[in-house]
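QA checklist item 7 of 12: single-chain prediction sanity check.
[x] sequence parsed
[x] length recorded as 454
[x] structure emitted
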Amino acid sequence: MSSPILGLALVLLLLACKGVNGQCYLMDADSDCTVCWRTTYSAPADGVGVTQMFPCPAALKSAWVVSPTERMVHMQEYRVSYSLTVDPNEYTVVHQGSHVPHSNIHSCIAETGACTPFVANTPGLSTHTQAQKGSLDSAGQITFSTDVELVAGRYTVIAHSRFFVNNSLDASLPKTKYDLAIGTSRTVVRVREKCAEGFFNEREDLCKPCPPGSFNNGGDPGEHICFKCEDLPGSYYQPLAGSTSCAQCPMNTENVFGSHGVNVSDCMCKPDFWSPIGEAGVACEPCPLGAMCEGALQQPVTKDGFWVDRHANGSIKGFPFTNGSSLPQIFFHCPNGDRSCKLNNTCDQRYSGNMCNTCAPGLHRVLFLCLECAEGAASRWVTFFEVFAVVMLWNLVVSLSRKHASVDAMLLYFQCLSLTQGFNVPWPSALQMLTPSWQSSTSIWTPSGVQYSR
């Protein structure tokens, strides 16, 4: 009989038995009660009969003596034993060479439906042990033992026994057949293969390579699991499957949160470090003096009182250097300190320009300060005091230069420095950064923004 027809027959049988007590393992695979079937025949030539499931009376019982072990392994033999009890005071069992002409173990694939004594030994549906026979003792008992060996899967395992009694209504009719079964559920697993380094064993499957971002170095219980790179102390990554270790992130970098340590590009700068070339997966430099660094791929941000020259796209000028080095960029002290240069290369409202060394429109410089331009009489008084201060300072310097050669040299230096500002010379970028310092050093001699009145 084909599997589909068998399946349909099982469904019809269960529907016919619905509502009958004593379904036991058919409804609860681990129930320890016995299920009974009785087949009667209506004519001497009746070879099929009518089968009914009925509640097993106390006089009929089947029980496990040694049930299948809880943990069964693929294609490994297990010894099981079960008993059959038929009360001789209630049932007169016919002896046809033996009282029990058929007894064996049925193991049905759990997903295929109910497991009954009437399911044939069919690949993919049910497997049977070799049938045994035997006779009841004086108390109506007998015990059978057999070996069970199964492939990996989930099963309903039943112990089935059969016996016959004479037809109580008509002795000329075929004998009445009784089938008893007790069942249990079992899962058969494969023996886990010991995996080589870089591989793991997932449940009953064969060894598989550890996925990227993990490794297995054979440690206990290394043959079954992979360890994650992100769980190691420090920062590590591994882009390859089947690895036995993880690679450490470049110097001064760490794994980005949520990256799982798969690629070197997951390694970015730690806080207080930065990448001069603006790329992940490379060593990072300490944050320059005068700057703050958030880490990752963020560019340094100047602190109050400092300045850095940037390109139009916001990147810092001077990186990478033409010789390929990655020396830390110098963040320059502003000539006017934190009174003019503010956080992130911004200027106080009174200052503007490179290194915030130029007075904003409407203001003029007096020494290192930018002040509002005066008008009218106030302007004339401001001009008078500025000129007076410059003359007095000049006389003091000239007087000192006559007495001290070093002061004379300093005066000459500032005069020459002031002259360089009058020429349009393409100074190197590093010297251009110092230009505001020159201007600050010389601008005290040339106050700007003064409005003269006539």
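[x] summary fact logged: The chain has five helices and 31 strands.
[ ] second reviewer sign-off
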